[in-house]
Amino acid sequence: MSKILITGASGQIGSVLSEKLKEKYGTENILATDLHHNPDYIGPFEVLDVTDFEALQTLVVNKGITQIYHLAAILSANGEKFPLNTWDINMKTFFNVLEVSRLHNIEKVFYPSSIAVFGNNVERVDTPQSSNLTPSTVYGMSKVAGENWAKYYTEKYGLDIRSIRYPGIIGYQSLPGGGTTDYAVDIFHKAINQEEFECFLGPDTMLPMIYMDDAIRATIELMEAPKEKLRIKTSYNLVGMSFTPETLASEIQQIHPNFKIRYQPDYRQQIADSWPMSIDDTDARKDWDWQPKYGLKRMIQDMFVNLNTPMPFTP
Ligand code: NAD
Ligand code: AKB
């Protein structure tokens, strides 16, 4: 029986992934952890700062952990405010996960990478898996380094580490935690509250995104795929959809005709401009049969249905 520890479990992805993993493996077999206690969480939860090696090791040993999903990190936009701190946290937490996994024979580790690994020297349309990685943010630099360390531990110690370069994730279940793609979640909350939305990216900024349901399904499908089929030892490119703030806003206006957006690009514009506009995920499709289910229109409908807003048309 798998016993799974999740780091950063209270975050945008962790709070949704932990529910899915509880359904799949049973609540008692999932140990959610984060920096602070989460009073809303149902099931085993421990406060854990993953920069603390001893604390992580103690939990892994005492709870008989067999798999780790390592989600704890500082994201792109927040990361630029304190670059050295971001590097320290993102790298130290992953080193601790790698070392504890090596020492205690953890069967599988999940490591989330990001489209932030790409810099503006690559083809920005259908960015290939094998592009050169010269990121512009400290967050992206930490993800590139993390990918390479994952490959190193796989090759040197035989650790089974699986990884996805997530696009920006959009979901109704949780709020994002300081990234450049956050606008694409925030915009829905403004629309249902009938407030004007000030977008920190310009109207034409095309970025790769994915719906939360697809992102969680991709994660679990990758973790369950036969190991021998997985040729990419760093991290898989993954496609959901791509759109600009202007396109998203005009789709939202089909449902909320009074919705208003204005554009006030800030420092996050430069980050977004260094990222791909769309991604080529041929390897994920080949190796573990990845197929997204949500495009832009279906994602928007599902967001509004779940955010409890009346739908003025039949989906
Ligand atoms: P988030 O910011 O919402 O959550 C991260 C969680 O990590 C937070 O709850 C925070 O308290 C916790 N954390 C931070 N430092 C910690 C530490 N030292 N010890 C323990 N916990 C700590 O992030 P998210 O959006 O849920 O992202 C999860 C992972 O997925 C991250 O590694 C992120 O880089 C990656 N990712 C996310 C997206 C996205 O769009 N959400 C896209 C690409 C990659
Ligand atoms: C961010 O914007 O930092 C994240 C990501 C794409 O990694 N959403």
From TrEMBL:
Q: Name one GO molecular function term.
A: L-threonine 3-dehydrogenase activity
GO biological process: one example: L-threonine catabolic process
Under InterPro entries, the record lists: Epimerase_deHydtase (IPR001509), NAD(P)-bd_dom_sf (IPR036291), NAD(P)_epim/dehydratase (IPR051225)
Q: List, for all copies, the residue spans of the domain called NAD-dependent epimerase/dehydratase.
A: 4-230
Q: Which residues form a coiled coil?
A: none
As for family, the record states: Belongs to the NAD(P)-dependent epimerase/dehydratase family.
PANTHER family tied to this protein:
L-THREONINE 3-DEHYDROGENASE, L-THREONINE 3-DEHYDROGENASE, MITOCHONDRIAL
Q: What is this protein called?
A: Nucleoside-diphosphate-sugar epimerase
